[in-house]
Inverse folding.
């Protein structure tokens, strides 16, 4: 019981720290949201007009607030589930704005993450089973090589070749000329727009899973119970998948659960590159616009997802592995 | 063998699927209907909504991310920033009956897109709305910045509005006429706080009405009942896509866009060889602001020497590839405003690049050259100036670099430090800097645009950015700007301008470097009549540009 109490306490403490940091960090960077907004209207070389700033500041309504007052307000609002009004999309609420961007990221990142997990685990397992084979070295070396490349760089090449040079796929946006709705035309439009960013993500996304899976699997394969199973004459496939892979899968599942945090934050660079209307771009935009409410909401949900995922994993470990429960 | 065949088949399937998708690269695109004879079918422009999220529909020009803020709601008048004449728009004229009383004469026969008449009641409603909700007061009508706040609004008849102020408010003219976009009383009276109103079905006066929006692409249709409809020859506008300099140049080259106003730094090389024209008239002057409260930069001799030391030709060549001209120290836009240059400065509008004079001034002022090749301040202390420049703003960094090299050439130790643009703004507010770049607007409300830069009431206190970031402090200039702001006699304008130009030329709190552009990059295959070197007119208001466009057949 103490184990669970400790874990819950730890979870709550981290959550509070996260909420507080989340409030503080955006405010530590220089820049006044009203000025950023007016600057956007006038353009970079334009002169900033003090009267406009005064009006916009009044509109965004954070004027001359003491930090502690603002913090207290923030906690109160949070407790009521009120995330505030976005500065960038005033007068729309943060909820409405995120509601627009989230489906795109869930679709793009969600699908690619699941595919990457399946593909990566499969390739990792196979490479470990055939360790030191040509396939294994190809996969391991290839992954390490690709893993060092930045996804936006890969994306730039893909964009240049497939969209600009060959013109096979649309270069930017989530959809083009169709009207959003549940019809085939729109679905096809969305798919054709999602293909290139998904392809870009799929080059690097499985690598973590491949390497992780391969390494744990190689370790498991050295275990006595594998030798016993082989000595007992079980078929290779059963030893590999039923015993070794099953045990090796546990840490990979954990890392998959943790990677779900990306679902909220999206992939900033890739979304930026393909002008994809998802959470990553929204986050980038919120940061450069000093859109505190939007920034805080995205960070907070991301942190909460990651924390909850690791909390659940912790609890599950307690159930699965008695050693974790007893250890100090 | 069978395995290989299976693999082949899978690869073939994948390829087909890919090609199938790719065939749909332009799914759902429909042809634009043809326009009547003598009209332009369509012009394609970038989207005005800049956000990542574009599905939230709001045409309210007061919101921070309207789908369009150019084509629907209109201002009262448009100031020609070259000639400084006011061009009639929803209003046909204005007069300051006294420094505290402004009369605006409205155009007759203007209709809202729902058929209602546009009257003085609408304008009065807009002014009073800004009083009730300060957040909507974008013209600063009721604020005490730049002149006294308004007191009352009257509408003696259907086409006249009179605003009375608690004191002199002449300096507010252009903000009131240019900035405020008029919305209809019969719709907006019931919406409460106008900044929070989500305007999905706009009732406006402008040259276009919305036809469709799919969350990405906005199609606007010509407003048949527009008061100036005879001069609008564009049947449709399509606003779609967000472009940076590279994708914008690409889209301009292949004809996907007819107009782009973003920052293409070197149009001569990137677009102009492919049938794309560009016009980069001066919009304002990029200046080197010197901190007047610090010992070295606060010294007049040092500022004069700096002005002579800077190689402005080299600077313009590096910062804008020579597209923009060297800025005049008079802060007027030359050669367009040549006739407005005060008599005494004709022929001396530009400070020449002259290191010898710079060295001479420094020597005479006691900036002794040390053994190590660096000069020291008159009191003997070493000089180490910091030029703070916005990180990532390539042209600004290039300018700062040339300035610092020029200073080093005359023995002044200075260096460039790049920082977050927001941090540079903070420095301007707090005064914690030696040298920064700033932009002096080229507007025609000169008591404010040029005078405000020099008056003590515009010195920022650390929280809000104001105009006098150099912190120039002279009671005589304060009085001059105050008198100028209260002057209602256009005949006196030249006299005041002459006095304020004297300050810029002689005191040099801001050193003009090069003009900053108001960019316009356009194609002439669908429309002609764009502003150009041969036919110059200001590009700062697109409403004016659109009413001068004609179909290309007309040009022949």
């Amino acid at each position: 019981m103490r184990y669970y109490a400790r874990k819950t306490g730890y979870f709550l403490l981290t959550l509070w720290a996260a909420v507080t940091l989340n409030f503080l960090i955006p405010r530590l960077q220089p820049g006044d949201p009203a000025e950023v907004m007016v600057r956007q209207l006038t353009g970079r070389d334009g002169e900033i007009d003090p009267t406009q700033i005064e009006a916009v500041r009044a509109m965004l309504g954070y004027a001359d607030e003491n930090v502690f007052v603002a913090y207290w307000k923030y906690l109160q609002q949070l407790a009521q589930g009120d995330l505030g009004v976005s500065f960038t999309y005033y007068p729309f609420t943060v909820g409405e704005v995120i509601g627009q961007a989230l489906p795109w990221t869930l679709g793009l990142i969600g699908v690619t993450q699941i595919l990457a997990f399946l593909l990566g685990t499969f390739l990792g397992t196979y490479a470990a089973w055939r360790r030191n084979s040509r396939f294994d070295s190809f996969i391991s070396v290839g992954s390490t090589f690709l893993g060092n490349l930045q996804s936006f760089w890969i994306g730039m090449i893909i964009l240049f070749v497939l969209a600009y040079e060959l013109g096979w796929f649309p270069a930017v946006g989530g959809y083009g000329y169709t009207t959003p709705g549940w019809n085939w035309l729109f679905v096809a439009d969305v798919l054709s727009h999602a293909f290139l960013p998904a392809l870009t993500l799929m080059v690097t996304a499985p690598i973590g899973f491949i390497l992780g899976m391969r390494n744990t699997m190689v370790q498991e394969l050295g275990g006595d119970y594998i030798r016993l199973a082989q000595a007992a004459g079980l078929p290779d496939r059963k030893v590999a998948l039923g015993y070794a892979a099953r045990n090796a899968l546990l840490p990979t599942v954990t890392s998959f659960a943790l990677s779900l945090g990306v679902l909220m934050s999206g992939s900033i660079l890739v979304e930026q590159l393909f002008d994809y209307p998802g959470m990553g771009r929204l986050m980038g935009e919120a940061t450069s616009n000093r859109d505190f409410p939007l920034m805080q909401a995205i960070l907070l949900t991301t942190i909460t997802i990651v924390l909850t995922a690791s909390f659940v994993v912790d609890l599950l470990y307690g159930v699965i592995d008695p050693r974790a429960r007893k250890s100090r | 063998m069978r395995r290989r065949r299976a693999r082949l088949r899978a690869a073939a399937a994948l390829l087909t699927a890919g090609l199938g998708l790719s065939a749909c690269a332009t799914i759902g695109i429909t042809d634009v209907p043809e326009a009547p004879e003598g009209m332009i079918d369509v012009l394609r422009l970038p989207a005005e909504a800049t956000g990542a999220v574009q599905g939230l529909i709001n045409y309210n020009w007061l919101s921070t991310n309207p789908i369009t803020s150019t084509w629907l709601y209109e201002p009262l008048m448009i100031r020609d920033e070259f000639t400084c004449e006011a061009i009639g728009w929803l209003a046909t004229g204005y007069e300051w009956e006294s420094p505290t009383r402004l009369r605006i004469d409205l155009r007759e026969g203007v209709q809202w897109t729902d058929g209602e008449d546009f009257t003085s009641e609408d304008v009065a409603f807009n002014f009073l709305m800004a009083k009730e909700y300060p957040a909507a007061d974008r013209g600063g009508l009721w604020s005490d910045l730049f002149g006294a706040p308004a007191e009352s609004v009257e509408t003696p008849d259907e086409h006249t509005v009179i605003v009375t102020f608690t004191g002199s408010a002449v300096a507010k003219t252009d903000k009131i006429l240019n900035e405020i976009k008029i919305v209809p009383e019969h719709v907006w009276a019931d919406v409460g706080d106008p900044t929070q109103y989500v305007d999905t079905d706009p009732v406006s006066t402008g040259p276009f009405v919305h036809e469709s929006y799919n969350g990405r692409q906005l199609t606007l249709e010509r407003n048949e009942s527009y008061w100036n409809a005879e001069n609008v020859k564009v049947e449709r506008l399509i606003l779609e896509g967000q472009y940076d300099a590279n994708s914008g140049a690409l889209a301009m080259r292949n004809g996907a866009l007819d107009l782009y106003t973003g920052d293409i730094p070197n149009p001569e090389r990137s677009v102009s060889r492919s049938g794309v024209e560009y016009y980069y008239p001066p919009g304002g002057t990029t200046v080197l602001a010197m901190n007047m409260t610090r010992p070295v930069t606060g010294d007049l001799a040092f500022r004069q020497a700096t002005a002579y030391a800077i190689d402005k030709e080299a600077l313009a060549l590096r910062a804008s590839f020579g597209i923009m001209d060297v800025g005049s120290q008079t802060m007027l836009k030359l050669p367009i405003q040549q006739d407005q240059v005060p008599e005494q400065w004709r022929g001396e509008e530009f400070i020449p690049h002259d290191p010898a004079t710079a060295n001479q001034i420094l020597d005479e002022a006691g900036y002794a050259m040390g053994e190590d090749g660096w000069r020291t301040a008159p009191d003997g202390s070493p000089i180490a100036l910091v030029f703070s420049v916005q990180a990532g703003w390539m042209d600004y960094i290039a300018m700062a670099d040339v300035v610092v090299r020029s200073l080093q050439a005359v023995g002044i130790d200075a260096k460039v430090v790049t920082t977050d643009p927001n941090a540079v703004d903070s420095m301007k507010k707090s005064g914690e800097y030696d040298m920064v770049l700033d932009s002096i607007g080229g507007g025609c409300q000169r008591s404010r645009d040029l005078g405000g830069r020099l008056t003590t009431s515009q010195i920022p206190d650390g929280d809000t950015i104001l105009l006098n970031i150099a912190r120039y402090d002279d009671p005589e200039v304060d009085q001059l700007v105050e008198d100028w702001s209260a002057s209602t006699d256009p005949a006196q304008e030249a006299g005041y301008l002459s006095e304020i130009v004297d300050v810029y030329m002689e005191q040099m709190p801001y050193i003009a470097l090069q003009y900053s552009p108001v960019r316009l990059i356009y194609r002439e295959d669908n429309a002609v009549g764009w502003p150009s070197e041969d036919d110059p007119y200001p590009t700062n208001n697109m409403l004016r540009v659109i009413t001068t466009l004609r179909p290309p057949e007309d040009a022949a």
